[in-house]
Design a protein that fits this description.
Elements (H helix, E strand, L loop, with lengths): L4 H8 L5 E4 L4 H10 L6 H12 L2 H6 L1 E6 L1 H4 L9 H7 L3 E5 L4 E3 L7 E3 L5 H10 L4 E8 L9 H20 L3 E8 L10 H21 L8 E2 L15 H15 L6 E4 L6 H12 L7 E6 L1 H11 L6 H19 L5 H6 L1
Parallel strand pairs: 1-2, 1-10, 2-3, 3-6, 6-7, 7-8, 8-9, 9-10
Antiparallel strand pairs: 4-5
The structure holds 2-O-methyl-1,6-di-O-phosphono-D-mannitol.
The site of 2-O-methyl-1,6-di-O-phosphono-D-mannitol has 15 residues, from helix 12.
Length: about 350
């Protein structure tokens, strides 16, 4: 059985494979289901996730692990087995979102702090028993053209990420550290250079806090945003995003970290794939670069499924396609031709 933190981390980033982030909290999944006019009931959430997890080709070949919500890790399918048994059967690792969401940070207007440290040691013990071998904690960093984020908010979020990561490693669970500088945030009109400066400052603070908390870099993964201009001011080319993101990561992320698993953060499906592939084609790199996408892996599949049993196969086909495209991108081998050939 794979129990060393390093082995788990390596399995998550092996040979072009990446992570499916399917840990939407009730609020988030409700918004996604609203778009396909589906009520967010426990049964619909289970059916949706069962549809994804039983996509055999995608799960076996391209997805190394799935980040689950607390509800999902405890959920059973109709024959009484656990949803996580489907993951085990295809050799995919179970991960768990352990943060309790971002809340307004007192004295810092417009900024948030992620909660969930109280009682975390006990929750991690339980999640380990339930089969989780990796976890995720997302810090949300607001960005604008001039004032946000503040150093105070960055440091407080970095501190929380570090305490979370040390507790995970103590429990035998690989922490995914997700400091997300919002790409689709309001007003979303900042330049790519502003995103570079903010991301660099955030990653510097995060790695300083991780070092102080004695987190083992070899037994963790980083889930960052890409360096990109705000959603309402998109000008940068694929090459510029790839170069600036890599430059920023090389300046801040120690080579001992085995892998970087990006979030997609409001990029279109194809943008998220193209950027990842462009970065990997600029190797060799000190760490593996792959994906831990939520929206960019799921959006097409969810729309094709639409909550209907008879659409399960088309939903799975759409999911398999995106998973394969991102697998190719993680190997630096994605192209427009492959996108269209499918
Ligand atoms: C799947 O969404 C995750 C949970 O989000 P909420 O706590 O807001 O419900 C989220 O953390 C996600 O993993 C990251 O934002 C990356 O997902 P994207 O969609 O940006 O790739």
């Amino acid at each position: 059985m794979m129990e060393r933190l390093e082995d788990i981390a390596h399995a998550l980033i092996a040979e072009g494979k990446g992570i499916l982030a399917a840990d939407e909290s009730p609020n988030t999944i409700k918004k996604r289901f609203n778009a396909i006019r589906l009520e967010s009931t426990e049964e619909n959430r289970r059916n949706y996730r069962e549809m994804l997890f039983s996509t055999k080709e995608a799960m076996r070949k391209y997805i190394s692990g799935v980040i689950l919500h607390d509800e999902t890790i405890r959920q059973k399918v109709s024959d009484g087995s656990m949803l996580t048994d489907i993951l085990k059967a295809v050799g995919s690792l179970s991960g768990i979102k352990v943060d309790l969401g971002s809340k307004l940070l007192a004295a810092f207007p417009g900024e948030t702090i992620t909660e969930g440290l109280d009682g975390l040691r006990g929750r991690l013990r339980e999640y380990y028993e339930l089969g989780a071998r990796f976890a995720k904690w997302r810090a949300v960093i607001a960005i604008d053209r001039t004032h946000l984020p503040t150093r105070g908010a960055i440091r407080q979020n970095a501190h929380a990420l570090a305490r979370y990561a040390a507790l995970c490693q103590e429990a035998g669970i690989v922490p995914i550290i997700e400091p997300e500088v919002l790409m689709d945030g309001n007003p979303g009109n900042h330049s790519i250079d502003r995103c570079y400066d903010v991301t660099r400052c955030v990653l510097e603070q995060v790695f300083a806090a991780l070092g102080e908390a004695r987190v083992k870099f070899k037994g963790m993964l980083l889930k960052p945003n890409m360096v990109i201009d705000g959603e309402n001011a998109r000008h940068a080319s694929v090459e510029e995003v790839a170069e600036k993101t890599l430059h920023c990561l090389k300046e801040t992320v120690p080579a001992a970290v085995p892998g970087i698993v990006f979030l997609s953060g409001g990029q279109s499906d194809e943008e998220a794939t193209a950027h990842l592939s462009a970065m990997n084609s600029l190797g060799p790199l000190p760490w593996a670069l792959t994906f831990s996408y939520g929206r960019a892996l799921q959006a097409a599949a969810m729309a094709a499924w639409g909550g209907k049993k008879e659409n399960i196969a088309v939903g799975q086909h759409a999911f398999s396609h995106r998973a394969r495209m991102n697998y190719l991108a993680a190997l630096g081998k994605w192209s427009q031709q492959q996108e269209k050939a499918a």
